[in-house]
Amino acid sequence: MQAGTERSNEAFVSDSLQGTRFGLVRWIEQTGSTNDDLSELARQGAGEQVLITDLQTAGRGRRDRVWDAPSRSGILMSVLVREIRPQDGFWFVGAIALAASQAIDAQTMSPCRLKWPNDVMLGSGDDQRKVAGVLAQLVDDAVIVGIGINANWPDAVPATMAERGTSVNRHLNDRTMVDRAALAADILHRAIGHLNLDRQALRQAWKAQCSTLGQLVRLELEGRSVVGTATDIAVDGGLQIEHDGVTTTYQVGDVVHLRPVS
Predict the structure, then answer these.
(1) Contact 213, 230 (CB under 8 A)
(2) Pairing relation of β-strands 254-260 and 215-221?
(3) Which pairs from 61-65 meet CB under 8 Å and 24+ separation?
(4) H/E/C letters for each residue in 133-198?
(5) Distance of alpha carbon 241 from its chain centroid, rounded?
(6) Are strands 25-31 and 49-56 parallel, antiparallel or unpaired?
(7) Beta partners for 77?
(8) Which parts of the chain have pLDDT scores under 70?
(9) pTM for the full model?
């Protein structure tokens, strides 16, 4: 029996997380932006909690890219995290992204990996497509980490969506629909474990799940691009790229995987 058939999705996730730092869970039908909603609560001093919605009407990704998905086709979730240090900002986002990648990977036939800085990619070889994106907002002494996951796509989706991304249900072995409540709960449990790790252990786990390392990449920056080999993830989460024998660390940019380095 799928979670949520007799109990609501909210009740299932809340019961699963009861007694943990993310035990306060709300699952609502619609909102503008879960990140905006929790940001406002953070300014009011609210504690750690989770907000999930079936439909987001004003969702945004990095660089204000629109995140648009049909109602109930995805997991649109934000997490309010307290007790952060600004220098660890990347790793609070990274803990959620890593948790999502691992939880999806546990269900699908295709491998699910991380592409720096915050994309969750599903697929094999050259056919890796985005299945989830993660975005964070710093609010006073808290961080709001939002994630949008393509969970259940119908057979027919717009060509532009299929070209840019994929969904979890398209990579399942014997099921046609993803249990969104169960997947959300799994991600949150894994995220709690990662947030409890020291930063070096989390960094090593993140690197092990990252498909960017060892690739010849093109890093798109404002007004220019850099081509080189992605060699490491720095202590602060920056991407280290080697070009002509010189290694440089970059904090921002869009990565394009060109090919693995032999």
Answers:
(1) yes
(2) antiparallel
(3) 61/133, 61/135, 61/148, 62/118, 62/133, 62/135
(4) EEEEEEECCEEEEEEEEECCCCCCCCHHHHHHECCHHHHCCCCCCCCHHHHHHHHHHHHHHHHCCC
(5) 23
(6) parallel
(7) 52, 147
(8) 1-7, 59-69, 86, 175, 260-262
(9) 0.91
171 touches 108 (CB < 8 A): yes
Using alpha carbons, select from 2, 5, 55 the residue that is nearest to residue 175.
Answer: 2
Contact 69, 118 (CB under 8 A): no
Task: Tell me the C-alpha distance between 77 and 187, whole Å.
Answer: 10
Strand order in the sheet with 239-243: 246-250, 239-243, 224-233, 215-221, 254-260
Question: Which pLDDT tens digit goes with each residue over 95-140?
Answer: 999 999 999 999 999 999 999 999 999 998 778 999 999 999 999 8
CA-CA distances (angstroms) from residue 54 to 76, 125, 204?
7, 32, 33
Identify residue 143 by its one-letter amino acid code.
Answer: V
Q: Pick from 205, 160, 139: which is nearest to 66 by CA? A: 160
